[in-house]
Each structure stands twice: as C-alpha cells, then as structure tokens.
Fold each of these.
Amino acid sequence: METSSTAAAPAPPQFEGPAPRVALRSLDTLWFQVAGTLCNLACNHCFVSCSPTNHTHEHLPLSLVERYLAEARALGVKEYYFTGGEPFLNPDMEAILEATLQQGPATVLTNGLLLDPRRCQRLAAMSEDGAYSLDVRVSMDGYDAASNDPIRGEGTYERILAGIDNLVVAGINPVVTVTEVNVENGSTEGRQRFLELLKERGVSKPRLKILPVFQIGAEAERSGAYESWQHLQHGQVPEESWDHLQCSTCRMVTDQGVWVCPILVNEPDGRMGESLADTLDAFPLSHPACWTCHAFGVSCKT
Amino acid sequence: MSNRIPEDPAIKKARAQAKLAAHRGMATWGEKLVPLGTFRAAAQEVGRELAEAERVAEIRAHREPIAEMAVTEGPFDRIAVFGGVYNNRFALEALLEDARKRGADALYCLGDLGGFGPSPEAVWPLLESADVRTIQGNYEQSLSSGREDCNCGYTDPRDNHYAGISYQYTAERCSPEFKRWMGELPQHRRVTVGGRNLLMVHGSPRRVNEFLFDSSSPDAFLEVLLDQYRADAILCTHTGIAWHRRLPSGRDVVNVGVIGRPGNDGRTEVWYTVLAAQTTGNLAVEIVPLAYDHQALAAEMRSEGLPEPFVETVLTGWWTTCLEILPARERAASRY
Ligand code: SF4
Ligand code: SF4
C-alpha cells in the first residue's frame, strides 16, 4: 500500500522486441504483504486496490513468515517491510514483528487507524527489546481534513492523528508517509506544514517520507521518458543503470508466493516463485507500471 | 473544494459503502475484477519452482565472492583508523598525537575530509606529512567531480539548507590541486593485521554512500558481505556513529567513527578506532574517545560565519541537523 496511484500515469508507449531484464543485485529489502489486500479503508489512490473485501491476497500467518525469515537469513537480507492492506488487521502482526526484530530492522506501514494505546505500548516494548530498529510508518494524504479525507475516507484525518497521538504517548517516533496525490504535499511549504503539524501533535523528532507524484500532463517529460526507455530496449545501457529500480534489490512475499516487487502484486505475471531461492534470477520489465517506475524512480521504502 | 455544491450525505454514505464491498468474491487483476480462482490459478502458472538441491545452489551462488578489489597492505601489529574529518584540523592534530602514543604502525582515513568545519585545505598537509593512507568518501567524489551539492537529498528543508551551506563553503575553499588529489584516492584498501584480512571502505563494500548503522545492519547481512568480499573484518565510517560487532562467525565489523564532529552522544570528544593483533588470533578492537580543542574549532567556525547549529554540535556533542539519516533506535537516543 501507500505508493502513489498508477491510475493517473500516462499511457505507456508500445514496445518492440523483448523487455529488458533487471538482475537482482542483492536481496536487501524483503517485503511482506502481511495483511494481503485486506484493509479497513478503501482509499481512492490505493495502487493495490485494497478494501475490506479484497481477498486477492490473504493474511500471512506467523508460521509462513518465519519460513521466509529463515531463508532471508541465508541470503543476507538487510531490512524487512510489512504492508497490506492494513497490517494490524492480521492477528499475528505483533508476533511477526517480534520475530523479525530478532534478525533485522523492521518497518511497518500502517494507515494508523488501529494504533490504540495498548498496541502502541506493545510496539514500544518491542522496539526496546528487539535487537534492531523498529519503524512505524503512518500514511496521510493531507495536512488537514479537507485535503486528506476525500482520498482516505470521511473522518480518517482525525483518526490518523489519534493514532499518532497514541504512538507519541508510548514513546514511538513515527515516520509519516505523504503521497503527492495533493501535489502541494511535496513542495517545500507542504513539507514544512506537515513537519509543523507533527510537532504540534507532540512528535518531537518528526520524520517524513514523501512518495513521488507521477508528473502527468507534462508532454516533454513524457516523451523524454519514452526515449530513455527505447534506449534501454536497444541494450545500450549497462546493467548497473537499473540500480534505481527497487526490483534490483527487493522481493515481495504474499500468501500466494514471492512477487518481484510491492507494485506488481496484483499482476499474476509479477510472481516469480514459491521460495526466495526461486526468485533470485532476473525479471523482465514487461509491465506498463515498470515504465512508470523507470521514468519516475519510485521507491516504496523509507 | 468550497465552491462545490455539497453532496447529499445519504448518497455519499451509500457510495462509500459500495466501495468497501466492491471486491466480494473477486480478485483485482490490475484494473480488472476477475473471480478469485482465476487470478490465483494464473499466478500459480507463473514463476519457478526449483527442487531443494537447486535452491541450495542458488543461495550459495548468491553469497559467492564478488571480485578482488585491492592489493593487500601490511602486515601491521597495530593500526589507527578514522573517518569523517569534516575540515576539523584541531581533531586531526590531536589524533596524530594520540595514535602515535598508542603505538600505531600505520594510520588510515576512510574519507569525508570536508564539510561542516572551517578552512578545508588545512587538513591536507597534515594527512600528507603523517603519511595517512586515505580512501575516498562521497564528499571527495562530489568535490573532485565538481558536483553542485553533496547530494544528500534530505526531506527537511532546514537540513538541505545547512548541508548546502557547508558543501558550498568547502567547495569554494578547496584548490583544484586538492580536488584532483581527492579524485585519485582509492575507493578501498585491504590491510593485514595479525593474520586477519581487513577491508576498508567508506560506506559499505558495495556503495560509497550506504549507511551501516548498528541498529540497521543485521548479523546475517554482514556475514554475507564478509563472504562476498572475502574479508575477516570490514571497517567503515560515513554514518558518524562508531560501533563494533563481533559476529557469530568470529569476524568483525567496525564503524570506526568520525573525528570531525561528536558522535551525537552528548560528549564533546570525537571517536576513532585502534585495531591490534592478538595472540589468540582475534582482533583487538578499541573505539577510543579523542578530546581536542573544540573551543578553538567553535571559535573559528563562528569567525568564518558557519551555521550556529553546527557550532552547537561541537560544543554540546548533540547533532542539530541532518538527523533523518538515523534509524529509529539511534534517533531515539539523540537529543533532537
Ligand atoms: S490505507 Fe493503504 S492499503 Fe488501505 S486502502 Fe488506503 S492506501 Fe490502500
Ligand atoms: S514495477 Fe518497478 S519495481 Fe516492479 S518490476 Fe517493474 S520496474 Fe521493477
């Protein structure tokens, strides 16, 4: 969840010839679609189309996560990310985080609605006791209800802030993720307003992650991206130039297997195998979303 | 927003509810809705399913050594290693003195000579005359290639502002000769200490600007790096905070710290590392605090018009800017 909408992306060009293949340079970031596609919200811009009734991917049980964690150790994974849907809908979520923190740093991406005081206390304790850092990343789409609620749903602005308040009381310093659905969010003034809002709420060390907007309409940009893609098509760009794509360093685990990245989970073609070892080979960038990714350099991690 | 006719609340509510229930029994295949079974069957068709032995081989191949990167220097019995000088010649002078007293046979600097402090060029003759073996940091790469900024890309406008000031200050005061020298520094060095092979890098063996913090570098990740780069120890800097971990395999990873500014721990000393051979075959690793004339540094920074928040760091030991690089745990331990 929590990546910008692909719905607004410009139509991709038609390609000729085989798609370029991106090698996995190293498996640094392992994602878990831990709540599947199930969410207590149904945001307008959700690029995985999550909702309370979307069972495309189901919750991941602790036992399955543990199996992948063992494999990840052998592969030297550097960091773990948990997303959905809404991760805290998964009844195993706290146990999953606890297990993960024994072997690496974990980030959980949440919409903030289920951050009640008890849960926040629990997260704070885990973050104290774990061997590595725990980050809680809360999503917002506007610094006021008027800009946030049309996207995330009526009344969500207040509920997100209540969740942030509970984190603050427990002593957790959240990262707030802001998509540029409202273009202004990413501007210097926009960032400043978010930082101020967080300070007002008692977040003493506010941290922001801005997810990039897809610059549509700018015809020049569009054709520029097209040219660079064609360029790549003809194999003129060395392999290292794919470093900016997250698929060169990540994989995504869902209850249906291992996918190439967090963006393509709703594309059967994005599935690469059953175990992590099955997915260490290169991936062909054949999906239109890949074009967007390449042109705008999207990365979902903090 | 305000100039639109408000929607009938009942219609609005019905629409919101329809949205929440839209996917019953269906899967989202891109923009389309298909029966759940259709999506799942299609997904199971795609991807590899290797046999157990093949999986083991794949994982082994993933940990294979990457490439030999540098000639090996040494052997030495005892070395002193530091990073992040950040124009702080006061600390560099103190370090040369301290390392000599501790009996270091060789001195190594892991890069980031500039930024933050005053009078950048002053550290160059000190490094040269003490025969410090230096590698490139990201700052040297930026300066020698003529970049306009340090490329930190912070999200907090205040951080970008101060990072920009200090980069520009340094860039304007480094001679072309100094920049050329920076551009010719190696990116890695390999050293033998007591039979152990130490790989020295700026950020990580893979990338000059990769951060290796204690709370974000898992044991398993570090073990794989050591396998891939065939080393018994990795020494790095770049983050500004020193740490050392002996891994389950008995190998070491050390972030040697920086001498240019305090380690965000409320102390005015800065940190560097002394490594020595031990008869047991292990490496003795000591991260040592280094006191220096920080008052003189602060005074010169003020007279050069460098940002007051930087001066505060020198005087208090707490970072005041660019804190967003810190992982949750290191951030929680900081004052700001
Ligand atoms: S909260 Fe996140 S996962 Fe849930 S619908 Fe909104 S964007 Fe999607
Ligand atoms: S969507 Fe982006 S990250 Fe995913 S495979 Fe395509 S290029 Fe890679």
Amino acid sequence: MSEIGDKTVDAATRTMLEKAAGEGIETVFDRAEKMKPCPIGSEGSCCRNCAMGPCRIPAPKKKPKDPEKAKKRMGLCGATAETIAARNFARMIASGCAAHSDHGRGVAEVFVAAAKGEIPGYSIQDEQKLYQVAMDFGVEIGERDIKDIAIDVGEKALAEFGRQEGELAFIKRAPLKRQEIWRKLNIVPRGIDREVVEIMHRTHMGVDQDYRNLMLQGSRAALADGWGGSMVATELQDILFGTPVPLVSKINLGVLKEEDVNLIVHGHEPLLSEMIAAVSQDPEMIQMAQSVGAKGITVAGMCCTANEILMRHGFPIAGNFLQQELAITTGAVDAMIVDVQCIMENLVNVAKCYHTKLITTSPKAKIDGATHVEFDEHDAINTAKRIVRTAIENFPNRTSKVLIPDERTDIVAGFSHETINYLLGGIFRASYRPLNDNIINGRIRGIGGVVGCNNARTTHDSSHLTVVKELLKNDVIVLTTGCNAMACGKAGLLTPEAASKYCGEGLASVCETVGIPPVLHMGSCVDNSRILMAATAVVKDGGLGDDLSDVPAAGCAPEWMSEKAISIGQYFVASGVFTVFGVTFPIMGSEGMKDLLFNEFEETLGGKWAFEKDPEKMAKLMIEHIDKKRKALGIDKARERVLYDMEMRQKLDAA
Amino acid sequence: MTDKMIKKQSFTGKKVEILGETYEPGMPAEKGQWRKKLRNRKAMLKYLQSGERYWYLDADQWCGSERRKSKA
Ligand code: SF4
C-alpha cells in the first residue's frame, strides 16, 4: 500500500483521502493500487475487432535479432503490430472527436432553437462574436435583424456535422501555409461526422491495413475535432453565454460551505449548468434554502463544466477529475449534477454512503442507481429549478460528519484568445505584437500549451505542476485548459503574483508589465480550440515564421487519460505542434507506429508526438524543441543578448 | 488617475524615471468587461477589422506574415 502522500500533491485531496479511508470509502486511488493495467492493451497490441480474436501480440521483451521474426507478430487474419496499434489509436481519436463534436452539436441545436426564440432562458449574450462567426460562415450581416443572422449562423454550424464534401468552414482560420499542407496530404476534414464514421469503417476487420494510411485518416478526424466540433462548441457557447473576460474566483474543495446547500455541477456541457448557476441566485431559491436551515446556496463546478461556468461567471471550482469522489466524501454535497464525459460510475456507490443525490441529466449518459432528471432545453429553467429544489430538500438529510478541507486558492481566469489580444494592446490597438516582440527579443522563450486530464496511475497533479513550473522557470509562457488549469489554480499559478515567484526574469517582467498571470487559463477541453486560435494569431502577426510549426511552441498533456486527449494531441500534431504525453502511450508495442508518430510526422505534418514519463524530462523536451524553433527562425541570438548581465552591458556600451 | 513614475536602473547602469504600473492594487471585484465597450454593430464590425484583423481584414491591408501570399 502506498502512502497517501504518494497519491497526490494536493493537500485538500490528502485530507479527503484520509477521511475516505477512515470511513471505509473506496476510491479510484484504491482501485488503481489493486488492479494493474493490462500490459498488452496499454501498448496497443490487443485487437478485438473480430470474433476470431481477441488477438494479443505483445512486443517481445528484448528486440529480436532477426527482423523477419519480428514481422511474424500478427493476429489470426495477419494484422501486424503496426496495423493493430494504428487501428486502436485511430479509434481513440474517433471516440475523442465524437465526444467533443457531439457536445458541439448539442450546443448548435440549442443555439438554433434559442435564435428562433423557441427556448426561454437562452439568448445572444455576445453580439460581436455572432458577427465574427457569421463572417466565417459567409452569413450576410448588413442591416439584417440579429435574430435572422443568428438563425443562419446556427444552421450553418449544424450543417458542418453532416457535411459530405468540401472543407469545414473554420479550416480557413488556420495559417495559409498550414491549409496548403493539409490539402497536399488530403486530410482536410470534409464533414465532422463523416471523418468519425470513416475511421470506424477503415478499422473494421479487413479494411485499411496500412498504418500510415490509417493515421492520415486519424489526422483528418482529429482536425475535424479541433478545427471543427470543438471550435463550433466554443464559438457558439461564447455567443450564447459570453466570451470569457478576466475575472477572479477560487478553487479547491474548500469552496464548499458547511452552512450552505452545496451543489456540484460536473461533466462538460454548460447548457444546464448555466441555468443551475443562474437559478441558484434566485431570491426564491435562497429563501427556500434558508427555510431548511441553510445560510445560502453554493454552486461549484468539477471537471470542464467547472471551467465553463468559471470562465464566464466566476463560479468557484471544487476540483479536478480525481477529486470527484472525494467531493462527496466531505459529507457536504447535497446534490451532484452530472451530464457527459469523465463521470466515474463509482460516484453512485460513494453517494450511497452519504446523503448526496447523484443526478444524471443527459439521455446519453445515465448511471444505474442514480436519480435521473432529464434536461429539457425547452424547459431549461424549470429543470434547473427542480434540481436546485431537490438539493435544498436534501440539505436536512446530511448524515455523516462534515469535513471540508481548508484549501481554497485565488485564481484569475477568463483568457479567451480575444481577451489576450485585447490585454496586449487595448481596444484601439489590440494585437499579438507585444507577445511576438517579446518572443523575438527573448524575454519570452516560447509558448507551452499544457492541458489534459488527471490519471490515477500517476501522482495526482504532480506532473502537471512539475512541467508547468519548469517551463515558467525557463521563461516559457503557459496556456492551459482542463484539469491542468485546475491543478495550476490550486497551486497558486493562476495569479499575477505567480510571475515573480515562479518565472525566469524575462517572462516575469513581461507578466508584471501587462498585469497577467504567467499561466493563462483558457477554458475547458473543447476550448483547446482557443489555443489553436492564439497560436494562429501569433503566426499571422508576423516575425515568427508563416506556419504553426515555425513558432517556438510545444504542447503537453502530462497526466492524460481520456480518448479525447488522444484526439486533441493528434490535432495539435497535425496542426504542426510538437506534443508530449506522459503516463503511458498506447502504441508502444509497434516499432512502425513509434517511428511514424515520433519521427516521420515531423516531415509530413510539421509536428510530432513524444512520450516521456518523467515530468522534468517532458519540460526539457518541450524547451529543446522551442530552442530548435528559435534557432531555425534566427532568434536564438536575441535570447543570448538578453541574458547578458549588467557588467557585460556596461562594457559593451563603453566599447 | 495621475501616472505613477518609478526610478529604475537602465541596462547601461544609468538611473532613469519610467512609468510605473497603471493598474490599481488589490483584486478587482468586477469582471474585466472590455467587450461591453463595443456598443453597436458598427463598432463591433470595425473592431473585427482592427483587433481581429488576423482573420477579418485582407492580409494585404496590414503587415502580417501572410501579406502578398496567394490565397490558400
Ligand atoms: S481483426 Fe485480425 S487481429 Fe483483430 S481480432 Fe480479428 S483476427 Fe485478430
């Protein structure tokens, strides 16, 4: 049995793990100790795509001397280790793309209904963003009524999912050179759903059996996620609920209040959580809460739902992925409301040990044993009221001793790519120029996109924080989303004060001048599309090459676990970004796939993958890549000059 | 608000007086609602062509990396 201290670096999580252990509650941390991952599945060497299998062809412990012998590793049908690993990997991309994109589709459907005035509670909150997206979709603006523009935008967005030919509209947002690369490789997505379906077809038994060809389709589906489904979700959500602007809030389990009715909204889509957040502030609801002995109502988020309501309204975050069971263990959660993605089935078992009502809301995601209150967007406010009332009525049923950890940290969030642009230049000269200039002059060494989940196979939050702190120390500004953003928030990295504490001199001076944190929270996992846009703005502003692959930048998901993360990683790689993943990597059983993903992709796509378990080495790989790009741009010298000390400068001046 | 000036040492070692921080101390209670400054359709569209020129203004009309490149 490992010590609790080995399981997490977060003090609140440690406190709750102790409480859980004392009360006999089993969590994912315990199960991770009891059950080890299958070594064959984790290297991608298991195929169960037909009933002649499953075929398991583990990589030999030692490299065989005879390469012909190595080739003999195959399934019953003859599928090689390469084909099997590529098919499994492509299916992970398909699932990840489907998850993000189905989220986007749901938003688009609500958007159209809201534009038509069919659903009360939803309206256009960001008119300017509507015009922005209208221009992308070629929707006429002129003097037209805003309602008509919104209907056209919503219908065009919805049509992107079922498109059969041509190119997705947002592809045109990418740098011109990037678009040319995609067209040359024939990987521009034709439609979002089509690319997912084609992966499922190609990976069926006996179809595409060339791993390189499979990964081209994997890239096309991944691009349909990043520049398609995810981007549609982000943009339409911004129009409906507002484009994020800077705001302050708090994070960690300490945001729950013993004297309040506590609701946790967990999952990914903001459609219902927006309504719950709004309804919780209704005086009628607050009065009802007081009538059962509570002081008020606290709504806190978990996982990416948390990021959504934080970014737009400043609602506090209770925690990231691995804290979901522990939130219930506080004994203070009166209702946990879940929608889709990253929701552990064991929540239902933990909830049974306390008074917590676990409420599922999506017809796509029910849990046996949970209470189901179906979210009807046509009656969203009443659905939200019903849920908040259920939580209030449950408040007097608290049974166990309540223990809420003390930890709650201040955070500054809300950095959409539009807001970064504004902060760098103001309303009349909004620009990425100051960022580019500071990269060119070397005060900022480069850009790191650090994102992704938690994974119970590695110490909670530890790799996230090590990677980010290493980057900051080396003057790399960090853009973050998802559970990484939450780990950074809990550790105090999302405040402007973090600049002087954690950053190299150059990055600290830039952050202090602008008044921004060195780690910019850009949102939920679909909001990785905002990182693509910020990086594109850097390219287009000039001076740092003409493609995303030229920019001194790198991506990382230190504690990834979901199939969505693989899709995100692949769309970053296919967009030209060097991307490092930690913990485990599901193609390590295939030499051919390793060579393709870790080397060949750099030649064709401009970006490539790397796998590294040690977080310090992950950061080192990113920094080495950033330096390689600086050298290629001829700006490595600029950085050296910045590092001259005062004495050297005085000597130079005197010369 | 009057501008705050601070004394710093320049790279050459000379003492210079420069503009200090322009933001107020402490945590803001309100969101930084900068988008509300764009009050009407005309201002919003104009901002798209200036602030968001990377996508909404022809690259030939400003000095970005894609100026004069043939359209993709
Ligand atoms: S498709 Fe081939 S490798 Fe896969 S289970 Fe069937 S026989 Fe085995």
Amino acid sequence: MQVPINTRINQRSYELEVDARTTLLDLLREKLDLKSVHRGCEEGECGACTVLLNGKPVCSCLVLSPQINGAEVLTVEGLMKDGNMHPLMKAFVENYAMQCGYCTPGMVMTSYYLINTWDDFTEEDIRKGLEGNLCRCTGYTNIIRAIREAKKYKDAGYWW
Amino acid sequence: MQTREEKIISGKGIYVDDIVMPNMAYCLFVGSAYAHANIKKIDLQQALSLPGIITILTGKEILEAMNPLPPTFGSSDWLWRTPIVYPLVLDKARFYGEPIAAVIAESPDIASDAANLIDIEYDPLEPVVDLTKAIEPASPLLYEEWGDNIQIHKKVEFGDVQRSFEEADRILKVSWRENRASGFPIEARGCVAFYDKMTEILNVWSSTQSPSRAQYYLAQALKLPMTRVKITMADVGGGFGNKLNWWKETVVALAAILIGRPVKWVESKREFIVTGPHQRDVLWKGEVAIKNDGTILGIRAKLLVDLGVESTCREGAARTLAPACQAIPNAYHLKGLEVDVYGVVTNKSFYGAYRGFGKDKGIKFMERIVQMTARELHMDPVQIRKKNLIQKEEFPYEQITGYVYDSGNYEALLEKALELGNLPYWEKEKQKRREQDRYLGVGIGITVEPAGLGTSTNALTMARVRMTPDGLIEVEAGQPDIGQGSTITRRKIAADILGVKMDHIEVKRDNSDMVFTAVFSSRGAVYPTSALAKAAKLLRQRIISFAADFLNESPSNLDIKESVVYSKTSHKEITFKELARKAYFSPGPIGLGTEKKINHEVVLDVSATWFSPNTARHPKSTYTTFCAGVDLVVLEIDKHTGQVNILKYVHVHDAGTVIDENIVDGQIYGGIMQGIGEALYEELVYNQKGELLSNSYSDYLIPTTLDSPNVIVEHLCTPSPFTELGTKGMGEAPIIGSKVAVINAIEDALSPLGIVVTESPATPERIRGWILESKEEVE
Ligand code: FES
Ligand code: FES
C-alpha cells in the first residue's frame, strides 16, 4: 500500500509516496541514497542504523516510513555543513574513534544527541547513553574519548 | 585530500551494501530447516511463478557449471580428509541453515517472498551435536565414506616429553573447555558480481579480507582462468578473520554469469551467524609434569576440536590445529610437549578463522596451566611465571615447537603490569568486599603472539611505490584496510622514508591484480610493511640519484624534506613536482647520467618483494615475529547474581617498533573487548536437534559500552631483528590474553569456594551454578 507523506530530512522538505511496509532505513538508503545509514542487524540490536527522529535517536530499521509523516529526520549527511565535517565527526577522526567505520555514523548520531541534551556529563553517562550502539572494533575506548573532546569543541563555541 | 576515515564518517564509504548497479538482481539463500537430513524433493514451481523471480539455483543446477569448492591451501605435514563440498546442498544437508537454494529476484522483498514458497521435503537423520559423542563408534556419520567423524587426527611431539615426566615431582591433571564463539562484525558478508562482456572479466566487489584468495577460489570453482576473474575490495565493515571464507559468493557469481546481469548478495545478521565461520570450541585434557619449586617441565594433552561440518573447503581453518599445538609453550621454558589432536566434524556450521587463529587455543591452555599449577603448589601464579619465563638474554629463542622468537623482555612486561596493577591495594580490598558478598579476584594472562604466517601464498608479498608524473606518490602493498588502520600506517611508512608530505601519498585500493593481498595472521607489520619499506627505500635512492643529476650535485649531499630534495651544502633544491616533470617529460631519461641509462634505472617506479628471514632459516618457525602482551585484570563477582564487574584493567604490550601508537592502541582496546566478551558472554549454543539458538545479537551477546573497562595501556619496545623496520605483527595478543586473564581472575575470586573454572564463557548462570555446587553454603 502506498502512503503519501510530508517530511523533512536533513533540513529539506520532501513529499513522498512510500510503501507502508518500507522501513525508514530502506527509505533513506535506497530511495534517498543516504548511505551513511548502515544496515546492521535490522532487529534493533546494533544501532548501526541510528538517525535522529525529531531530535531523538531511533533505530531506523524499526521505524516504518509512514511514521515520519510530519516529522524531522537527521543523518550524518545532514550534520555536514558546506561539505565540512561537523566538529563531532572531526573529534571522532582525530581520536581514532573509528576502525572499520560501520558503526560510526550511528555512533555519531547518538553522541550528537547526548552532547546536545546534557549540559554536562560523566563517562558513566556516555556509557549508558551509547549502550544501544554496538561496535565490534574499537572496544569503545576511543569513542568515549572522542565524545569528551567533542564536548570541549562545543564549550569553545565550535559547534553547530 | 580526504582520508579514508573522513570519507567513511561522512557517509561516503562504499560498503558492499552501498553498491547499486543498473539492472541489478538480488540473491537470497534458503537454508536447511534440519541439521542433518537427506533432501528428498525440492519443489520450486510455486516460487518460480512469482512475478519478479528471475531464477532459482539448487545443487542440481550448479553441479554442471561448477567444480566442488577447492580445498584451501594445506600444509604438507598436516593432512586432513577433504570432503566434496558444493556451496549448495546436493543430497544431504549437514548443518542447520546450510544453503539449499539461491533465489535470484528483481528485489530483496520478492526474493524473500519466493523463498517462503519453496517446498523442501526432508528425510531427517539423527544429528551429531556433541563433540565427545561424535567420536564414539556408534555415532551417526556426516560423511559415510569416512567411517568416522574425524577430519584430522595427528599426534605431535616436541622436545623430550618422557624425560620431563621422569623428572617431575608431581603430575597435575588439567581440563579446559572453550565453547563455540566467533567474531561477527557489525557488517555481514556480501558481494556484487558482474560479468563484463567487453573485457570478458568476471568482476566481483566484495567484503572479503583477501581479494587474492577469493580470486583463486572463484576461478577454481567456476572453471575459469584466474585472469578472467577480478575481485575488488569494497569498504569492509570489520573482518577479524570472519571474511576470509569464500563459498556462497561462488553461487552469486555463477548467477551473474547465467542471467547476464549484476547480482548482489548481502546476508542478514542471522544468516551470518547461522551459516558463518565459527571458532574456538575446544576441549583440552592434559597432564602436566611439575616440580615442587614451580618449574613446569612438560605437558601431555589430548585436544578435541569441533570443526562443525568441515574446515577445508569453505575455509581452511582445520589448519588452526597446528598453531594450537605449537603455541602452547608461550613465554616459557618447557622441556617436552605432546599433543594428541582430533579435528572432529559435527552438524554445525563450518569452522573458520577468527582473531587468534588457533595459536590462541594453545596460549590460553598454557595460561590456565600456570594458574592451576600455582594452586596445586599453593604458590602465587606470578611466582610460577617468573620461575618459567624465557629471559631477555635468550633471544632469539628457539622454542621446542620450532618457533624462533625474535626478541622480547617478558619479565619486564610482567613487572610493569604488576606495578600498574597495584596489587597490594586489591589484596586488602579482597577481605573488605567478602563481607558484602562480593568476591574479588586478580588474573593475569601472558601472550606471546606468533604473527605473520609465512607458508604458501600467505608470504608472497610485494610492494610497489611510484612517483607519478604529477610528483605525487602512489603506494601499493598487499594490506587491505578493513579498519585495522593500514591506510594510515602505509602512508606514514612511505612518508617517513621518502620525506614526503602525508597528503602527497595515495594508497591504492586493494584488488586481486596485486601479487598477494590479504588481512590475516597479524601480518601487516611483518610482510607488507617490510616489503613497502624496502620499496620505499629503493625509490628514495632513485629520487635522490635523479635529483643529483638534475641539480648537478653528489647524491650523498642530498636529503629530502616535505617533498623537496635539497642540498645540505648549497642552496640548490628541487621539488617533487619539478623532479617528476623533468624525469617524465623534459629532459626525461636523456637528462639522466649514463650509468642510470645503462642500468635501465630510468623510471621512478619501484617494486620489492619480501620474505621472512626467520622462516627462511627456520622453516618450522612459520611465523616471523612474536610480539608479547601481559593482561592484568581485577574483578569482582556478585555472589548472588554471578555477575562479573571489572574493576581494573592493565595491558602492557611489546610490538617492537610502533608505526602509529594510536592504531596499535586501537587494536589493543578492541581485542581486549572481544576477549572479555568471549570470557563472559559470547557463546554459540546448539540444541539437541542441532539448531543454533544464539542466532542474533540478542542471544549472541557482544559487549556494549557498559562492558568496556578503562584499560591502562603501556608500551615497551624490543625491536624485531627480523623485519625491515623492527616492527612486529600485532592485533591478536589482546583477545587471547584478556580472555584467559578474566577466567584466571574469576577462578582466583572463587578460590575461597574451591572452584576450578573448567569452561568458558563464565556466564552469570554458570558462575551461579559453580557457587551453588561449591563447598561453601550459599544462602
Ligand atoms: S540495523 Fe537497526 S539496530 Fe541494527
Ligand atoms: S568501528 Fe567497526 S564496528 Fe565500530
């Protein structure tokens, strides 16, 4: 069944006809070519597909396309500005917070939400906040380090 | 220039699943519902009539077009039985999920609808699921023609076992079981195959760890000359050995040829786990000859390994049994060792590579032996280790098993770990926490990691470095980047040696055109690095000699910095850009000295090969370098829940010369996390029917941020005399040492209860069970 939806994805408005069964993951990847959104488990277990829906992280593999009607979606592509990496992404690269990179865009989106939501946070907070994003490569150490460094960027006003 | 990391984090990485080609079809495999069953009938009619179905392949269809999967490279002294294996079941399914049909459709959804319409009639057979029962004479057989379920049996003996037992004060009996586990990176396996009519080449873009191996297997299986097969690596979402196997891909490629269209296959996470490479699953029983002063003299052991359905054709991991035995002596003097090894087939998915590749098994066994010896003698495990450690003056050290250790200072590593661990403090804590029903324990794991395998194609490494006519440098060295940082390190090596700016270096994406390219055996800092360093040094010489001619200077007077060749005594200099322009265009070779022209050294393009001097001189030392790590963990166990909480984690490492400490640390953190996961949670559980129960991330529990400890990492450095830059292969020690250190710590914590840990993972349920069975009353 085709359903018409109105939505904003990465600061752009779309009027789309979507199949009611299509997941947000498939819509973003296959229809809109937003390939930062990675297919991991498709069961809500790994977080590789994380995007922000109305500012909150969700597993896009668990969201059906009609659910984004009237909503706002943000992916890593939308975090970039004029082709430049967001300071958070820069912090990831600088701190060796990615190895294979498959979990990375999802990690970035969840971290972006966490940093923006909390005025201040502890390492324990980061660990709890990122629990749903699995990484098999890094042991998380450098990811946590990157988030701390990103916070410094934010505090210094280098952020968007 | 955008780096690999910047590209990927911006969402511009191209993993297999991101590849889209015009007119592309999709492949989906349909797996067996039974672990062991004869296939009576496959009815495709309904499925084929579904709109959007292009074709469906079964064993029958592929039989004509394909050879059986070629046995992977073996070794002359480990001979195993090789079954005839096709990637789709011919008549009998031998594991739950084994592919029976491949559906090729216009979309993944249509393929999955069709899969549900395929009607398969089975004649179920009794499955073989228990490792020890599988070798009993009454067991059902996987391969009737073998007469038993043993794919490989071999007894190996090193040193003087008999004498070591004669000299012993006592004999200690040990038993140690590691259950089935594997890597399962977040990205599963996949490929896109396309037969190009113009070049007549079968192109495959793949998530493989080795395009070279893939090319060989695919060509063999599809009866094609290798020159007609080209494999290119997509970005790869993690491997850890799990993407070395190559078998389903042959069906995808065949389908692409048959239908004349690109075909894509990307498996689901469940398919990856159910039909993926499995590892570990070993049972050791042994006797250890020890002296009352703590000297470990010798070991006699029997090793049973559950190879699942087989491990020679889908992948050659049966060979992991060799390093499993050879790595046992680890960091210690040992007089004699005997292992009776059985590689057993059962109705489970195939045995494949996973970080550790066999050497892990022997090392963990040894580190358990050290702990059990200490307990037997009422001594501190640290004392036992010190008593038996190889000393720093003894290198190069020829181990009884034939490995020649390049360099090291194991005692210094251990001392450093102890210092950082601050054990006296934790000893005091032990008592305090006991009163709150928490058991605190300390565990250590020492790992001497054999790295850089030098047998067969593994060691055929070549590097090419050239200056292109625009004055930039292109690097090729068979070391694909699957996240282990080889793009950064290759660039750094070339930049360092050549004196070039980092962003003037382009690292070529790996494909099967190169001599041999693969990620495994922690070979990066051994083979490709050495070949690359050699080639870069040669190119440097040539650049300087060209510049000498153009500047009319003596070569010894010249140096390079920031892509400029300059004279150390005059103001003369020439940029790489200018040098390249002169060398390639004008004056070109004419402007070079006579000597160079006579020697044909007129091109700024150099290749070099490299082979391990260690393996060359000592063929039994199949590995070249031996980095070392000491893991020290302090943890506590909640008596009531069996939950383990890591309080302190120290890792001291010696990988010789380090090219990029951040990359090395990343390998350490990641490896430790995987080892902890394996020690505490990760387990592939089959039920009596041979169905895999832990077939998703919700049952196969890989560690989350909440499980990751704060790791204190410290580096010591004893450069390897055997590699070009003193580097040592690394990346596997942390997964080995962490697992056994955690197990040793758990045993230490539970020692007041008299518990000996004989099985991993030590899940909360298991720990709880041990506590309940233990001597002490638990309320
Ligand atoms: S792909 Fe969505 S959570 Fe794994
Ligand atoms: S970087 Fe590979 S999964 Fe996180």
